[in-house]
Amino acid sequence: MHGAGAADLLTAAVAALVLVAIAGALYTHRFGLSHLLVFMAVGMLAGIDGPLGLPFDNHAVAVHVGNLALALILFDGGLRSRWAEVRDGILPAGLLATVGVAATACGVAVIGHLVLGLAWMDGLLLGAAVSSTDASAVFAQFSASQLKLQNRLAATIEVESAMNDPMAMVLTVGLIAWISSRGATPDASSLEVLTPLLAQQLGLGVLVGVVAGVICAAWIARLPIRDDHDGLAALLMAALGLLLFAVTNRCGGSGFLAVYLAGLLVRHRAERVAVMSLPGLNGYTWLAQAALFLLLGLLVTPHEVWRLAGPGLAVAAGLMLLARPLAVVLCLAPLRFGWRDQCFVAWSGLRGGVPIVLAAYPVLANLPGAWKLFDVAFLVVLLSLMIQGPTLAPLARALGINRKPE
């Protein structure tokens, strides 16, 4: 009975936290704030420094839940994207998701070295963790802001947010392996560790995503699905996305990239069923985001984060105002993007759950100083959602790139 009672209390506590977070998130749209902030804030209030004082320091659980939630969010994002609208953004998004991520990581490494006194490889590890934009944050903010951007610009931002997670994860995992085996001093052989891992992750991710997407679309199109069958169509899509994510990871590829590409192909080749499943699938993605950010809020110890408020603010400002814009110019200027579009792409690089999840990897690896990297990454995400999110729509109007609805 004692075990059953504890389970009931835990279930009630989690359900209550989700209810409070969702109720609060419904009001944040009035202020242009991301609902992800509310989930995170509720988690922090329930955590060790909050009124409830719930102790939670299981980074492995947070990483596992985070990976599953992000996989579901990316598959949903692929299903919501029309190929005709996405294809114009493939090249610039691909550059931003690879060269742009690496350039951003290098820029943050310089800032971390100057502000926090980090060794160069530790600075690169921090940069790799916070270098990718977050698909869930970008999709949610675009939906809340009701922006009407030119197709190429919108596709570039959305596709980049879905494609750059593999690059950031590969850099993070590769750098952890390097630091664990050889210390925090870089040399030429660093590339010998990272390059094959990157090629394997991206190559297998693309291959499995395309092949599985074509096969799954052909199978789904032949199923006797006439309506959503009381939500079964959405459940089918959710199970398909999670299965593809797990299989791709098991094969050594990037599950994140695979599920997004597969979602795109399923939407393109089995559009009727894909569109039918979206309303129900939207509920699953909301639940996934709520669980992820509640866990991340619980995982953070605010009084420890507060000690790094000054350096964390400097790193966040350097990322938003220097590292990210320079990476965008490097990638988009040769493709003849106008300066207004480049400014908006640079500012729309919202950070969300991905950087915090990636910053938990060094903690799991027991690297020296890993807690500092985790706390700084949390501050970067918090400031990005608080500053960049609410100002996206006003910036689009000021730059004259927000098209009026017809």
Uncertain spans:
none
Estimate the helix proportion, in percent: over 70%
Average pLDDT across residues? 82
Specify the number of helices.
Answer: 17
Proportion in β-strands: under 5%
Structural Rg: 20 Å
Secondary-structure element sequence?
Answer: HHHHHHHHHHHHHHHHH
Overall CATH class: Mainly Alpha
The gross shape turns out to be globular
Structural class: mainly alpha
What does the largest sheet look like?
none
CATH topology name, in short, is Na+/H+ antiporter like fold
The number of E-state strands comes to 0
Domain count: the total is 1
- CATH architecture type: Up-down Bundle
Q: Gap between N and C termini, in Å?
A: 62 Å
Question: How is this structure best described in words?
Answer:
The chain is mostly helical. The chain has one domain: Na+/H+ antiporter like fold. The protein contains 17 helices and no strands. The longest helix is centred in the middle third of the chain and has 33 residues. It is globular. The relative contact order is 0.17. The mean pLDDT is 82. It comes from Pelomonas cellulosilytica. InterPro entries: Cation/H_exchanger_TM, Na+/solute_symporter_sf. Pfam families: Na_H_Exchanger (PF00999).
Descriptive labels:
406 residues; mainly alpha; Na+/H+ antiporter like fold; cell membrane; Na+/solute_symporter_sf; transmembrane; antiport
